[in-house]
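Comment thread on ticket #2218

A.B. wrote:
> Attaching the input chain for the structure job we discussed in standup.
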Amino acid sequence: MVTTTVLARARAGDGDAFRELTGPYRGELQLHCYRILGSVQDAEDMVQETLLAAWRGLDRFEERASMRTWLYKIATNRCLNALRDTGRRPQRAGESWPGGAAPEPSRRAEPLWLEPYPDTLVDDLPDTAPGPEARYEAREALALAFMAGLQRLPPRQRAVLVLRDVLGYPAAQAAEMLEASEVSANSALQRARAGSWTRSRRPMSGSSWTCSPPMRG
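C.D. wrote:
> Ran it. Output below, let me know if you need it in another format.
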């Protein structure tokens, strides 16, 4: 819950207040970035970039969405930008960061293998239920078979599937987070569902999936 007092303190440059606002979401943001990028290290880097962007853009947080949703939007688009740009520049030394200099992100490259997400990091996450439209349970969406299918998708399809089917965001909200039209986001979701795996019923009912060739788009 964002309180007016804490938000005002953070906007005035109080690093402790900023960490109070964003700290509860750090772990789940790293997990979200991992699902899109397929690398624990890249996910850690992207969370740093997300929090720096949030710190620098806090005046643009309009409170129409929750702090959690706003951070997920930033993280999702940072991940998509990183996937488009394999030559991400390092963080410039001396940029403003609450509590000191931010760690420099590593140069991202496509992983040579799919890196499993550490169980200890999952165990430390708060018990946050996904939205009502989610099709996968949290741990099921970390299974290597799921992740392998996910990494075969084009980046935007990957992101919209995670937002809709893993996190359970409604169609309109997921589209807004992707800065796309609802029609475009729904089209990408349908291609993602068809191109990553086939199934006879919803995985949350206990079904399994099989990978199929990736689709363009």
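A.B. wrote:
> Thanks. Noting for the ticket: The CA atoms of residues 20 and 175 lie 28 Å apart.
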